[in-house]
Amino acid sequence: MALKDLPADARPREKLLTRGPGALSDAELLALLLRTGMAGKSVLALAQELVDTFGGVAGLLHTSAEDLRSIKGLGGPAKRAELVAVLELARRALAQQLQEREVFDTPRAVQHYLQLHLAAKPHEVFAVLFLDAQNRLIALEELFRGTLTQTSVYPREVVLRALHRQAAAVVLAHNHPSGTVQPSRADEALTRTLQAALALVDVRVLDHVIVAPGQAMSFAEQGLL
Fold it and tell me: Which of 4, 83, 105, 214 reaches 20 to 30 Å from 53, CA-CA?
């Protein structure tokens, strides 16, 4: 059924304006962004397909423009660009929050921020959040990129980047494209090596976060630091 054929109070735009955004389902909110469907598929059906295919809104936020091409009705660049733009706005909103507040105040925001940046990548990436003396975000840098199973991380490079950023502390992060966030022995050994190297220049390692689509694991929360 097309949106114009729905009762006025059931149309997403009217429902949002009269009852607020909280009254809308994920698919209805997404339909407002998409605006139009395609021949034989309403915009609500298209929105629901996106939610179902990518595992909800969290999964959708971790998709790339290339991932979206697989959905019939999103073959053109306009709708894909709009969805990718929403993802980038989410990243920037979280980055602003982390720049204004101590990361210890918002541990979940840190994890979500890292998920938005790293979780959807098909290859393994090692990144570092550089923090100032108040534990606020200076920058996120992707320092190393590896295969699906292994990344080579050079402690000397991490130390040099920390000095360049004049960081007082860091949060280490990497993704597991396999989908699991369980740390390996190599992950634990790398964390200890980087802790020791950074301690020589008085930079603290506050956490090491492993991310995958829809989930994250914190070394600090698990007592591994």
Answer: 4
